[in-house]
Amino acid sequence: MAKAKTLFACSECGHETAKWYGKCPSCGAWNSMYEVEAAPVAAKAAAGTALPSSLPVPISEIDVSGEDIRTSTGIGELDRVLGGGTVLGSLVLVGGEPGIGKSTLLLQICSALCAQGKVLYVSGEESQRQLKLRAQRLGVNNNNLYVHAETRLDTVLSTAEKLSPSFMIVDSIQTVYRTEVASAPGSSTQIRECTMSLMQYAKSMNVTVFIVGHVTKEGTLAGPKILEHMVDCVLYFEGDRHASYRIIRAVKNRFGSTDEIGVFEMGSHGLMEVPNPSQALLEGRPKDVPGSCISCVMEGSRPILAEIQALVSETSYGNPRRTADGFDYNRAVLLLAVLEKRAGLMFGGCDTYLNVTGGLHLAEPAADLPAVLALASSMRNWPLPENLAAFGEVGLTGELRSVMGTAQRLVEIRRLGFSACICPRRSCLNVPVPEGLHVIPVDTVRDAIDMVLGPERGR
User: Fold this and answer.
1) Residue 300: pLDDT band by 50, 70, 90 thresholds?
2) What is the pLDDT of residues 181-201, one digit of tens each?
3) How remote is the C-alpha of 28 from its chain's centroid?
4) Chain centroid to CA 143
5) FRET pair for 226, CA 20 to 30 Å: which of 27, 238, 415, 441?
6) What does the DSSP 8-state code read for residue 191?
7) From CA 233, how far away is CA 228, in angstroms rounded?
8) Phi, psi (degrees; rounded to nearest 5) at 289
9) In angstroms, rounded to a whole number, what is the distance separating the alpha carbons of residues 350 and 438?
10) Cβ neighbours around 170 below 10 Å, total
11) How far apart are CA 300 and CA 26, in angstroms?
């Protein structure tokens, strides 16, 4: 019997080499190479012959008229993130931390998908009985929903060809494996080969396939980075699994925008849509407390109000601590430097903590100004006006730069009962102001702080 050949594969990009490297020659990642056993050449050749091949067709002869390309999932928030619903023959990857609600969401959408055709739910982590108990709790019961507890992908595809489902859910991609690939389930090689087979099946049979992916402790999808390039859509669940609110975001979408988010609330009967996320995120907001400011950010076409909290206290150590949760850490350090240099607020001897409530992660530059105001409010120990909201990008010279979507932001701010808004002067030029809202245009960070806090207030 011939000795099995050993290769080394990169956990980030899937690149394979005959010898070990400390740095991947392909993607440059350090300490990402691990040992795998190469599959026989005959097995690799057989792995790609399971599905029928298609002949090349001129693009002018491809007919898509009258074809229902998109299908609603029955959950409006998920349809918004997907760009209007699932696309025929697409491959969707859903990732998130354990217990965040990935399997719950996919089982919930089966009720609406079963009205469009058969749904095959492949469970590699739960038995059929366990899945049935969870479906009863969620109120999912339809004869078009078929449950298959199997981890061998060859058996799964054979069953799918006999059943001819319109939708297929694989939970999870780390548990399924191909018998022709000589590596353990969950390895980068197995994940890549299984995803490639599922992609070929989805495209050739026009079946929409959802696959669940685990995440690493760093919060990224486990397996090779090429996994995200192979699929059509990558959805991430965000939020603390111990809290009630969940946020689903599309980081890749070939058929829609990647800026939209969906907000859900986890309850006893599964995930429930939150049609008004701004109001939900502002519930329990403290009154008359320093270090709190309301920010208005754009998530796709939707303006969302979120609370940014800051805490500044004298440090007990030689080096002050800097912590940011829901806000980019490097951006927070940059804003602290701007405040010291341009506004005269010295944070060198203070611990600084920045937090976005509700589990939301603010990546838009428009969150700079409310973060600055929250930091200044905590530093001077003086609360901001309760009816005030803010948005605007902060430059390194302390100037406030304009942002897009000013009109939508102002309407949302006024709709939720706020009567004052501070924003960059250039953003509010020739923009209609809702009745009852007082807009405060400012040019610099120092002007913004002095306008709402005053130069002599607090410390």
Assistant:
1) confident
2) 877 888 888 888 899 999 999
3) 25
4) 32
5) 238
6) H
7) 8
8) -125, 130
9) 34
10) 27
11) 34
